[in-house]
Amino acid sequence: MGSEAEKTYDNSVTLDPRIKARLKYDDKGLVCAVVQQYDTHEVLMVGYMDDEALRRTLTGGRVTFWSRSRQEYWRKGDTSGHVQYVKSVRLDCDGDALLVEVDQVGAACHTGKRSCFDEGGPLPAAVGMRPEGLGERS
C-alpha cells in the first residue's frame, strides 16, 4: 500500500498540477529545499528543486536537486555514497520552500562534514529572551 500522497497525487510522468499550483518559484523556476535529518531534526543542507527534481524526489525515495552551477540534475549520493533517503516532504505556508526530511548516510555537505552549517560557523547575533508570562510557543 502506498502513502496517502501516492494515492492522492499522480507524479508518475510529470509533477501533479495540484502540487505545482501550490509552489511559488524564484525567477529561475526553482524552489528552496531545506534538508533535515528526520529523527534528530538536524538541518543538513539547502538545495534547489524545479518541478522535475521534486517529482523525482517524491517518486524515487531519494533526494534529487537541480544544480544551479552545473545546470543539471543530481541525486544526492550517486558519486559520494552519501545518500539521502526521503522520509517526508512538506511545503511551507507560503509555497516558496520545501522541508525534506531524510535519513542521511554519511556527510550531507560537499566538504565532508555532516551538515553544510558546520563549516560556516555561527554569526554574532543578539540573543532574544521571551518575557516570562508571555505565553507558550504555538
TrEMBL record:
Sequence positions that bind Zn(2+): 93, 109, 116
GO biological process: L-histidine biosynthetic process
Keywords: Amino-acid biosynthesis, Cytoplasm, Histidine biosynthesis, Hydrolase, Magnesium, Metal-binding, Zinc
GO CC, any one term: cytoplasm
Binding site for Mg(2+): 92, 94, 96
Cofactor note: Binds 1 zinc ion per subunit.
Cofactor: Zn(2+); Mg(2+)
Pfam family for this entry, one: PRA-CH
GO MF annotation: an example: phosphoribosyl-ATP diphosphatase activity
Residues annotated as signal peptide: none
Keyword hit for Amino-acid biosynthesis: yes
Reaction equation(s) it catalyzes: 1-(5-phospho-beta-D-ribosyl)-ATP + H2O = 1-(5-phospho-beta-D-ribosyl)-5'-AMP + diphosphate + H(+); 1-(5-phospho-beta-D-ribosyl)-5'-AMP + H2O = 1-(5-phospho-beta-D-ribosyl)-5-[(5-phospho-beta-D-ribosylamino)methylideneamino]imidazole-4-carboxamide
Assigned EC number: 3.5.4.19
Principal location class: cytoplasm
Subcellular compartments: Cytoplasm
Domain Phosphoribosyl-AMP cyclohydrolase, residue spans: 45-117
UniProt pathway annotation: Amino-acid biosynthesis; L-histidine biosynthesis; L-histidine from 5-phospho-alpha-D-ribose 1-diphosphate: step 3/9; Amino-acid biosynthesis; L-histidine biosynthesis; L-histidine from 5-phospho-alpha-D-ribose 1-diphosphate: step 2/9
Complex and partners: Homodimer.
Reported function: Catalyzes the hydrolysis of the adenine ring of phosphoribosyl-AMP.
Recorded family membership: Belongs to the PRA-CH family. In the C-terminal section; belongs to the PRA-PH family.
Protein's name according to its UniProt entry: Phosphoribosyl-AMP cyclohydrolase
Organism: Bifidobacterium castoris
